[in-house]
């Protein structure tokens, strides 16, 4: 009998099956770490990989004597590799149950093939798996990390004619000054820092500003298109990857028409850089900040929780991601799981509260001001950064909090704990993150002033909506709608003194005034909260037919 056509030995099959299972179970995690800039030898990362490898070895050892069981494990391992790493990258429309069904069909097909296969087929599959493992383990040596990517020109810009520089900065989930003042001692420090910063640097601050929309996907597109359309009239398409792409952007069209080179700074939520019709010369994208964390400051259990929860939240449609999500989403976690991860009181996966957007936002903010310092006047800079957006992971000095379990989200995932005390706790954490933001802004603007370039800059800084902090169930929820709609608005033109404007003005209306020097647009709805009623997801627990009132626009006394 030809040795290449004879069936492989049970020992060889068991070893190959272990390799296939290892590739399907471990390789997606390795790929995720590489993509997000996490060193594989970092404390926490290598323990996860070793733990998964031990699981694979144990399963292979138990099943080695049983040929059919070994074949099934081998078929499933190869199928996971194909579905998660190959099909998942090229066919993003395949997800959810379709992906699971494809996995089952492919595993059954491979099982039948392997039952009849020769040693040659096993050797070919084993070689392919070894190449894939080697490629992923060595890829950091040859490929740049993809969590923070700059496309386009990185060299300084030199516009043709000297004129004002435009800076448009969106601070996600930033509440208005009136909102912060109303929260009293919980936000007193950040409220004082906010007012001091804008007055000192010549901004007009609108403490009673608001957004017409409760969600970013409606607020920001309408700001950029200088409108206030019903939410059924969208300016964007939602991608399978979770990001959104604008198919209409009046602001960028206006800047391009006036021959202003545009630099964009963005995070994963919205993609502003894809349209070649605009004069976008560079785009800096930060997908996460795992590669920016100092893992030596975290306890091992916290690091493992952080990395696994990031993986599961970012890969919900992969086989391994769905499995991790299912484990973490159990209502009653096993005692051994609680003891292992020390996470009895949080559910990091379903709430995505381990995403470290604020840290990535600080990186983008530093990059923005570095470019402002080196470029000549005349360009346009647009940044949408997720700070003071949750999770509240930064203290007032911008250090990442060592206790991962303290990185709370804006709402409590446990509805039984949806109380005013939980809301107050989150506003105190929100206050710390805001103080970090304004410490950073003040330092960078002060440095910019020393170059003399600040005097040539026109700023438009605003939030997309309010903090949206609030208990899920509370009889006073309707009186707290200010949390969702009251947002930051500050504008600066060269040569102006800092002042306070107490008029109630929407950020959508302000965009028209900033870019087109026009007054209020004609399609402004009569009530700022006209679209709240359609946000069913955000209205759980509210009485049906409850009326909505105009926002609280009580003046903030200077």
Structural account:
Helix content is 44%, strand content 9%. The strands form 2 sheets. A 9-stranded mixed β-sheet has the order 1-8-6-9-2-10-11-3-12, with helices on both faces. It is α/β, with parallel strands linked by helices and 558 residues long. Helix 13 runs parallel beside helix 14 (420-451). It starts with 9 loop residues before the first helix and ends in a 42-residue tail after the last helix. Mean pLDDT is 77; it is low at 89-94, 331-353 and 519-558.
Q: What average pLDDT do the residues reach?
A: 77
Estimate percent helicity. 40-55%
Total E-strand runs: 12
What is the H-and-E element order? HHHHHEEHHEHEEHEEEHHHHEHEHEEH
- Please count the helical segments: 16
Give the helix/strand class. alpha/beta
